[in-house]
Design goal:
The protein is α/β, with parallel strands linked by helices. It contains 15 helices and 17 strands. Strands 6-5-4-7-8-11-10 form a seven-stranded mixed beta sheet. The protein has a six-stranded mixed beta sheet with strand order 14-13-12-15-16-17. The protein has a four-stranded antiparallel beta sheet with strand order 1-2-3-9. The radius of gyration is 21 Å and the shape is globular.
Length: about 425
């Protein structure tokens, strides 16, 4: 196996989470007794460009042609997108004559803000079911996987993009070099690309192992993004840290030779990553032991609760939750059910562990003693929304970065 960016043979393990099904392959009731396909969940690190990556066991076409994730069901995420659109419109001076393209535009949750601001847009989204939702919301959307050919098609039909948005999509691209080459072709001479990715530094520092799953082929530091961009004539001109997804980076790219100034924050972040050891193999080797301790801590809390006769359910059915459930073998012996705001998942079961997924109202009917928050990156939003569970004494279990119990009665007293 070779690095998908630089081609170096991959010799070093970050974490081996065993075998797991695809995290968004939710099971219908008539599939419960059918065999499921499991794949190795073994993340490796390249000692040349420091890209952390999974092998491509399943093609993106298999994963994303019909997809169960709709961004609009997260209030926090939609609000984040709205703030970004307002900010970048002012920063770049975008208007009616500009052209914004989002790669992996999902259900139009972000581009609809630009539509409201009077900025022409195009979404590029491979999942036809999700893209149709965007179109119904008034967001022009091309159903395609992005690369040089798609970029050439868009340039021929619409021209070059003043802004290319790639939020939480780069990780889902196995052909990284083709993807970035396509961005370079699509981008206008003085245009800007913004890329948001979960930050590898935070993943390691805060034990965010459940963000590793087959749909995410790669995991990025700013240093790795810099090397990837440079290989295709792009340069980092700015970077910001974001609280999303447990800690993310927003990187700004422009063509090499662009007139856009380079912020000091780029050099500062690259230096910070070196201090954090992201270019030292020992940093990666120490990760596995910490993850194993987190697994044991969570199982101890769940076992103790069940031994006391407590009822436990989950909140959410995100991809990261299915990595956690399968790695720790948490099934219906621990969780009676989980709930999700996305009606697409209702009546289905989580892959591997087969935990039934209900509407959120099921929590009020069951009145469990504990609620395990699987999308822990949204824990503040969820605890606020569900604070009323404290009326019957329920508490929340947050598994990452370390196991903690949140009592809403104490939090909101």
């Amino acid at each position: 196996m070779r690095c998908r960016h630089c081609g170096t043979p991959l010799q070093h393990t970050l974490i081996d989470l065993g075998m797991s099904p695809l995290c968004e392959s939710f099971i219908t009731q008539d599939q419960l007794d059918a065999p499921e396909t499991y794949y190795p969940l073994h993340a490796r690190v390249c000692h040349t460009c420091w890209l952390v990556q999974l092998p491509e066991f399943v093609s993106p076409a298999h994963i994303f042609t019909e997809y169960a994730y709709f961004s609009s069901y997260s209030t926090t995420w939609v609000a984040h997108a709205g703030r970004y659109c307002e900010m970048i419109k002012g920063r770049l001076g975008l208007g009616p004559k500009s052209f914004v393209v989002e790669l992996g535009s999902n259900d139009g949750y972000l581009l609809r803000h630009f539509v409201g601001l009077g900025v022409p847009v195009l979404g590029i989204e491979p999942a036809a079911n999700v893209a149709e939702t965007a179109r119904q919301a008034g967001v022009p959307t091309l159903v395609a996987f992005f690369g040089p050919e798609t970029a050439a098609q868009v340039v021929a039909e619409r021209g070059h993009a003043d802004l290319i948005v790639a939020n939480n999509v780069l990780a889902q691209v196995p052909e990284l070099n083709d993807f970035v080459a396509g961005m370079a072709h699509l981008l206008a001479p003085e245009g800007v690309v913004t890329i948001e990715v979960p930050h590898l530094e935070r993943l390691i520092a805060e034990n965010q192992f459940d963000t590793i799953y087959h749909e995410h082929f790669s995991y990025f530091s700013l240093g790795t993004m810099s090397r990837l961009a440079a290989a295709h004539g792009l340069v980092l001109i700015d970077v910001e840290t974001l609280p999303t997804h447990g800690g993310s980076l927003r990187a700004y790219l422009a063509h090499r030779g662009s007139r856009r100034p380079v912020s000091i924050r780029v050099a500062d972040m690259l230096a910070q990553e070196r201090r954090a050891g992201l270019e030292m193999l020992s940093t990666y080797f120490n990760f596995a032991g910490r993850i194993q301790r987190t697994k044991r801590e969570l199982l101890s809390v769940l076992i103790e609760a069940k031994e006391e006769g407590k009822r436990i359910c989950g909140y959410g059915a995100p991809g990261k939750g299915n990595t956690l459930l399968n790695y720790a073998a948490i099934g219906t012996d621990f969780l009676d059910f989980t709930v999700d705001r996305n009606p697409y998942k209702h009546g289905r079961y989580t892959p591997g562990m087969h935990i039934p997924i209900h509407p959120v109202e099921a929590i009020d009917d069951a009145k469990p003693d504990y609620i395990l928050i699987l999308p822990w990156n949204l824990k503040d939003e969820i605890v606020q929304q569900m604070r009323h569970v404290g009326r019957w004494g329920a508490k929340f279990i947050v598994p990452i970065p370390s196991v903690s119990i949140v009592d809403p009665n104490k939090l909101f007293s």
